Write the structure tokens for this entry.
Amino acid sequence: MSVWNKLKSGCAAISPNCREAVRAQSEALDHPLPLARRLGLRLHLLICKWCRRYGGQIRYLREAAHNHQDQLTESAPEKLSGEARERIKQQLRNGK
Amino acid sequence: MQEDNPMTPEDSTLAGAHSDPERWVDEHGDYLFKFALARLRDPLKAEDAVQETFLAALKGRTFAGRSAEKSWLVGILKNKIYDYFRKAGRETSFTDLQFYDDEESDRFVADGAGKGGWIHESGPQEWLKAGESLDNVLFWKTYRDCAGKLPKNVAAVFNLRELDGLESREICALLNISDSNLWVMLHRARMALRRCLETNWFTKNG
């Protein structure tokens, strides 16, 4: 595995603890991690099932939110009030 | 060659410019309102945004493609919402570093050899049938309730990133916040949302 090779060649990848790893996994969703941090995280995830699970779950939440926006929006109970609806229609009649 | 262009019954009822925009309100008003309310959290602001959307749509109307109408209107609405956020970011600080600032420290080993590791009973649980949940209307109600617990600014950055897919750089520019603060807010939003859904959905229905 390339990770182990890099270790063998003396790359000082310090493995984070779980608190740091969950933070790093979140950041990895928002920007590329620097190499050392990325390698350290990967090492940690090799041996920590809890953090692997955490990462899978925050990625699941991202996909859920991003790919089901219609369902999410539609599921809200609120509606445009009758008064607002009429006001807007009136504005449109005036505005055209 | 003469083009055959008969008006369909549908077209004939839409003939007359005034009925078109009003139909938009009937067909799309609720959806746009729900969308705006989720982002702005204030019914009056949401109504304003929807009104501005329809007015802008009226001016910019260049086609009558029904199927893409909703997406087109949502696109205009999103930009109105972004304008609102941009203005808010200039007037007050959008950064919120108070929310969830302990970052669930009680779930990690505090001291000693395993410092910083998950306390086993508190670690992330298995989420069974996670895929099926996405088709369940009750799941989305739970999701909405959990997302509703995020404070306004944290929810806003989460939505910009995860719903709209804006890049970190774009969000920072829009809201006038630093990237490090953005990433902290996103981390805490994800942590809180994950925990809320685990407690209220995945370990109840798994």
